[in-house]
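Record type: ASSEMBLY
Status: queued
Input:
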Amino acid sequence: MSAKLDSVGFNPEQYMHEVGVQARAASRLLNTADTAGKNAALLAAADAILAAEKTLIATNAKDLAAGEKQGLDAALLDRLALNPKRITGMAEGLQQVASLSDPVGEISDLAYRPSGIQVGRMRVPLGVIGIIYESRPNVTADAAALCLKSGNACILRGGSEALHSNLAIAKCMHQGLEAAGLPKTAVQVIEAADRQLVGLLLKMKQYVDVIVPRGGKSLIARITEESEIPVIKHLDGICHVYIDEQADLEMAINIAFNAKTHRYGVCNAMETLLVHSAVAKQVLPVLAERYRAEKVELRGCERSRAIVSDMKVATEEDWSTEYLAPVLSVKVVDDLQQAIDHIEMYGSHHTDTIVTENYQKARQFLREVDSSSVMVNASTRFSDGFEYGLGAEIGISTDKLHARGPVGLEGLTTQKFIVLGNGQVRI
Amino acid sequence: MSAKLDSVGFNPEQYMHEVGVQARAASRLLNTADTAGKNAALLAAADAILAAEKTLIATNAKDLAAGEKQGLDAALLDRLALNPKRITGMAEGLQQVASLSDPVGEISDLAYRPSGIQVGRMRVPLGVIGIIYESRPNVTADAAALCLKSGNACILRGGSEALHSNLAIAKCMHQGLEAAGLPKTAVQVIEAADRQLVGLLLKMKQYVDVIVPRGGKSLIARITEESEIPVIKHLDGICHVYIDEQADLEMAINIAFNAKTHRYGVCNAMETLLVHSAVAKQVLPVLAERYRAEKVELRGCERSRAIVSDMKVATEEDWSTEYLAPVLSVKVVDDLQQAIDHIEMYGSHHTDTIVTENYQKARQFLREVDSSSVMVNASTRFSDGFEYGLGAEIGISTDKLHARGPVGLEGLTTQKFIVLGNGQVRI
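Status: finished
Output:
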């Protein structure tokens, strides 16, 4: 445990105030740091992580031992564990972020106005980003890298069970920052497990510009509720595939199969399949057989069950459930409008796909479905920062304001207006 | 007063719930409304406003009489008043918004990814916008027009003193919507003066996507404090002009004079003048004389007062005061860094200008000053949606997230990802 927590005189307010002041000061230096400097810091931090492999594993072992003693379950311990492969993965992540182009300072839309001034927008860092996450210690490196590259200082608050691991990773980040002449305070890990500190962080409006929670639903809900600072968050992923009557049925079956079975515990997996009544009899038996082979449990509406009799009955609750598991709800609909209405009513505005060969329906689906990602003839599993070419993502936002969908470097920046004149005044 | 408020059975929760449900339903229709339909509604509403001139003035007279009786001050009554010129202005505002290009559906950055999918972004409405404003009834037409053109339903809550005027204007908007076959519920004015209704509106997260308050500081502070919905807001405008040692001094004097004296009560007026010590002796006496002729009160630092002896003493508080009046604080600084540090410490991140002929300093100022508008050689008074070419503005945001600076149609929209494939699945 950190000295600061153990010491008798530890004052949480004072400690967090200092963290905030240092972050704000670091953010001013980062805003003006050049691309080469930020990349040098990232690459040096990657080297430091690789060089520290033994130390990281030894430190992580302490967290794991304490976790076992506390009775953490196997899944949690697995997420907490660092091994050579995960350590190499972290270093590669840093190198990859270094290779991304720098969004800061990018000027767009610069154009002359009738008054003679030129008006444009310049992309700039948000300032200070607070990241609150759970057990995976690699988030320490991943999130810090994205913040650094986008010119933001960050305050990181991981799970208490990963504190030693997170501090050891932060030390490597600090080595990278120092090697590049950037302030260590650009990446600060809150050094005490005291839960009160999260509450304080969420109220530091004067120091923190945005909070990004990463973890389970309950964590995100709690932070959103409590935060006085804007939150970029990810809630449910209740994703749909709609198979239109004019779909290429082989394609439709492949997409529906992939969207459900490629991975189960992810937010962009399909949870509900909608099938046009004109093709349901052709599509559902084939799909049911493929799902059965993967042990996917099907829960259908009455019309689906009339076609595939061994489906369970889907209840009203199923339509708004994110299973994150080999379970799928299935509904037969009579037209595109019914499909869109269902998605609007029960979906979570995350990712929805239509499979169709019809130009007009594809266009309507793209326009009318109000989700962060809307697709035609592709698996919902593509809803991802890497697949979208953002390079890396800090998360997928289900908010509408600021950032929607996968959030990469650009989502950690904002745009200010710039005006270039040669003496213009308002008349 | 509205029937709903007077009736014994008026249930505020039930009323606001109905308003919310109707707004959400209208927003779905508006999202898919075509540009021609929205423009037709705006033009028909403009015609309805012009045709209703006499009714509007008569209705407004009731609000004015009630206001006088209540003892509203002259400035408030002036803002509340409608006259033929203001009514024509409202109609022209609607016509102007109709002439702006429609941001909804705009697709950008559509590009192929290695997987074969095409990924791009489509601009879409936010959904439902709540506008809370004070006495000017013309905001009813202006704000409704911007929301409508950007495909959003709006819930308008004006000052209780303007309720009859606002309802009469909304009636004209409804005529326009009906003429174009769009739902009247796209523009709803809260029909009761009950203050409790604002509190309810600010908690309707399920129906309202963003709140835009327009009015004085105390209104905005209260709404920001109370709202559970994201707020696009405007706080202080403590704007600076920095005259560099390498400025064209005649230009510098003209800009500093214009930025202060063009209008006093506006957020983009200069409140603090910063002058490089090397040119202060040349610049300040000339400027002081011009300001004196306009009866602008000067409050200077010691070094400024050593040059212009009749300046008052600027206190620490002056540097962070938005005068909105013919008052100006003046400070002599030794270099660009001191100027930037002052702006960072005391400014409100609204609009700041450097006057310089030096390329490197202009570049540094543009990059390092963290304000919503940063200018070189132009008056701060240009910080305005019309001057920036946004066509019209719903306000100037001093927030960093989502919209920063003047907020036009684009600020009332968001972007979703669209993916076009031909059967791609994740491997």
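Annotation: The CA atoms of residues 156 and 189 of chain B lie 5 Å apart.
Annotation: Chain B has a mean pLDDT of 94.
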